[in-house]
């Protein structure tokens, strides 16, 4: 079995001389924006430069979390389609914008239409896979990714989506392998792509309590793309797992200096609470609630965080369930199933909760928080053995997860004599 | 001629991915016609334009005509204009990087290779171009790093072997630069075996054998170099590189008539300035100054034929002028211009020689130190260093470098090998006289 420690270490230590020599001060997306604008100036009657501009703006959102760039992307696409109606590249860019704005059903519908016309286009399969993953249609996503790999063996978009699916299926090592293979192919100039991939790998390591490996990957990500907001968010989660609550607050404060999202605001509120800054935490929670409630019925929302907020801090289980039902009507990915199950549990609908969490775990996902939820739900249904097994599984998977304390307490109540689970790194 | 390795390596490798696996049944002209017809019928066909661009590149490789590279560029631009944000566009972008390399726009080549890689197509080929561009710009560490990525995790065994071949040929060059000439030779031999095993096209195998010949020539292994060049010609009769290589060996062996015939045949196939220079030098050696002059005129003519030729032959012209004490101001200007786009050891060497011939010895010493910084065992550069240090008054260094030059290859240059021996003898004699005088208490 491959030694992923070595893989992680090699990615952390690989010298970036070539990268340092050639990384310009502009980010990759900024460079692409500049190139596209120059191309538009040179050829204002061509649609492709507008497509490239749109895609560059979408990339910029991923670099910064600045969602206003979607508007600029949309403007560019409109121009492209005016010049060359129905041009494929323009329509593909439109799918990217829809995905970025979390309009997964619309994105999927458009991608499928385009895919029928051009069945050998690898990126369209990628878009289909992205939408299907978000909607919880994992089997269809897998079909799309397999098509990608069959059309173009080893292509990076396929490897990244394959990694995401493997993670969902509980195949952590397989996911790491795909991430690593994708990473090896990325040129040093693609700083954000590199940082994003490293961050995904860091999250994966964090999810199983490999804190040192996670830290190494995140440091490497921040070296590749300084200030990268996604890496900072992950770093905050890592600090929390290490019980460095003040450090987590500091990291999130830095992150939120640029384009804070409702989700990052919620993360900061939680970090403040853990760090004992109750007044600041309450204020941050109120801000988050106000912001998140504005988008409950939008595609681009923070409903999952809002559900958990109402269950843990907002003390409004009924509202949590109401919002969960809105989400589950649109998608049934594992995250939504878990949130729905927990909301049902909080409202004493234990059997329904059991059904939903079972659906989530049936995918194969190995997530300590979900396992804890499943254990608590099983316990509420008086299924002691199942509860014990699930709670132990949660602690064995990640003894430093955010629910580890609650899992230990619950396990203690169930099996006082055998409740001890050691921390391991 | 070692200096031309990278140029031809990428041309070899980048007509298609990997070209080595495709049976090249059609002539290139036929392929061009086919692709032209295709894009006329389907003007939105990005793959057609990409194929046309690749075909023009192949033509350019066969003819050495820079105009073909411009045609390639036009077709590839059309392809990329139609599709640029999809893994499928990586091929056209990689070809564009090859065009940039052919036109000595190394920065541009690196950018296109990186763009191709950014699409994540799964094809590691662009790493080779990226490495070549970096090597030509003098970033050998970056080049090695890029070449190390030439590993296909996917695809057939043949494809993996093809990438292994690409890696070996390039690493061979880097080893040569680093002074490990024997290591370079070993890698090139390994690459040839792989080329044969893969049943690569005859011209590709011949190229590899020619490269081996070049490396062997560099260390004065005339018999082995001759064998390699002959193998290239046997596998690909009339191969102009093989002809030029064998001509060099014949000149080194004192078989000047044969050398003349062979160089003439090489020039008839592809009129490179360096072949015309070498032929002129052979004529000079045998006392036919009239014919020598004709060849030297041809060198200038080719060098100034077009804007692209001027760009890609800057260094050749600079060296030609310096070697023959002609237009030394222009030699220096050309060398400096070349240094603006690349800082590889050969550009530093030509700059050093131009400085030397212009009487600027300190500047020459500075430049030659850059040329030798990697430890390369290139007899010509070592000779230049010897001559330069003699003029700066450092006779110990001068003798050392001249000795190294002759030890590396006593026949490194038809005109200057003897000069090296003469200067070394003179410096040695001078030292003997000084010692004697010191011993006699005269000094």
Structure in words:
The complex is a heterodimer of chains A (425) and B (443). Chain A has 425 residues and is an all-alpha fold. Helix content of chain A is 74%, strand content 0%. Chain A is globular, with a radius of gyration of 22 Å. The relative contact order of chain A is 0.07. Chain B has 443 residues and is mainly α. Among the domains of chain B are: 147 residues, Tetratricopeptide repeat domain (Serine Threonine Protein Phosphatase 5, Tetratricopeptide repeat), CATH 1.25.40; 63 residues, no CATH class. Chain B has 24 helices and no strands. The termini of chain B are far apart. Chains A and B meet through helix 2, helix 4, helix 6, helix 10 and helix 11 of A and helix 6, helix 7 and helix 8 of B.
Quaternary form: heterodimer
Look at the helices and sheets of chain B and give the structural class: mainly alpha
Give the proportion of residues in helices of chain A: over 70%
The helix/strand class of chain A is mainly alpha
What is the CATH topology classification name of the domain at 1-147 in chain B? Serine Threonine Protein Phosphatase 5, Tetratricopeptide repeat
